[in-house]
Amino acid sequence: MPDLRTSKLDNLFRLLDTDHDGQVCRADFEHAADRVARRCGAGDEAHARLRAHHAELAASLCPPGPVGRERFHPPRAPSSPGLTSLAGAIVAACDSDGDGELGSGEFRAFLQGWGLSEQDADMAFRHLDVDFSGAISAMELAEAFEEFLTSDDPHVPGNRLFGPVDDGPSARLPYPDPDDLPAETRQLLAALPPLNIFRMAAHAHTVFPAAMNMSRAILADMELPGDLRELAVLQVAADLGATYVWTQHVSAARAEHTPRAKVIAIRDGRLDAPCLTAPEQATLAFTAEVLHRGRPSDSTFARLRRHLSPRQIVELLIVTGVYTMIGRITTALALAPDTSQGDAVVGYATDTANPEPVQN
User: Fold this and answer.
1) How far apart are CA 59 and CA 76, in angstroms?
2) What is the distance between the alpha carbons of residues 23 and 65, in angstroms, rounded to a whole number?
3) Domains assigned to the chain
4) In this predicted model, what pLDDT tens digit does every residue of 233-288 receive, in sequence order?
5) How many Cα atoms sit within 13 Å of 238 on the Cβ side?
6) Is 328 in contact with 245 (CB distance < 8 Å)?
7) Are 135 and 101 in contact (CB under 8 A)?
8) Mean pLDDT of the chain
9) Does residue 256 contact residue 219 with C-beta atoms inside 8 Å?
10) Are 106 and 94 in contact (CB under 8 A)?
11) What is the pTM of this model?
12) Are 30 and 70 in contact (CB under 8 A)?
């Protein structure tokens, strides 16, 4: 089975080798730029800029002259400024409505210019639109290019920039066969949204029902406001590097009407960003100190106490602890990423709130 980076470059090589002669060169990158420009209706200036930056990308990926697949690899890491310029050129060429970003249709046109199918282009958009804003900015596109070209992390969204890839090694433990699980666990698993975290957790079938009841209570029965809960979960995911949890809970945050700017602020570590309210800043500061120090400072605790009740503070600590556990399961066992269904999980929890206790 090829490793992740090999799988990604296989995709790129296949898209470039349109004449199927087993070789690519700078001209193939420029032809890709030409196809994108035609597909997006770019003007002459935007087309020329797009061509120039595609040629620079070619120089970073392969030596001069035609090369076969075995020599098609980055001899040096592409520079971030270069990728930022490339992304800016793509947005300038494909941004038909002039809003400075690529909506789903504009992004589809870009990738179809490269040769992706409509289905694969739309799937790539769903993976890259991590904040569910309905658009991809030049900065987000540059980050996707960098992840695609340099990352070995199977969870980063940029892996799918140029279509589906082999995610590399499978999870470090096999998922349980549902037929081998107790009937009660099997029925509960079948009722849940089909996520790998639930499948893996079902191994611990004697605690799985109780764990799912706690998860339902966290999502549906707490006094802690849902938007604060989701901001705290995103803070946990960001601190742990738990991309799986982050991906799921960006959509859950969206279901709680959390604006894009707040998600980006947490992602960037700006926990005092002006877009965050005083209760939100206090919640995030407290959560971060719980994760980093164990015992938050008196001043941080006093700040939170001004906004949350004792019950809500204890609930926040439960949220932090539970999602630290979940995050560590996903990272320690290298769970394969799922398409984001966090909003569906919240909906499921709300629909099944206050279930009858499960008897083991």
Assistant:
1) 10
2) 9
3) 4-160 (1.10.238.10), 178-351 (1.20.1290.10)
4) 999 999 998 888 988 898 889 888 898 889 889 988 999 999 999 999 999 999 99
5) 19
6) no
7) yes
8) 88
9) no
10) yes
11) 0.68
12) no
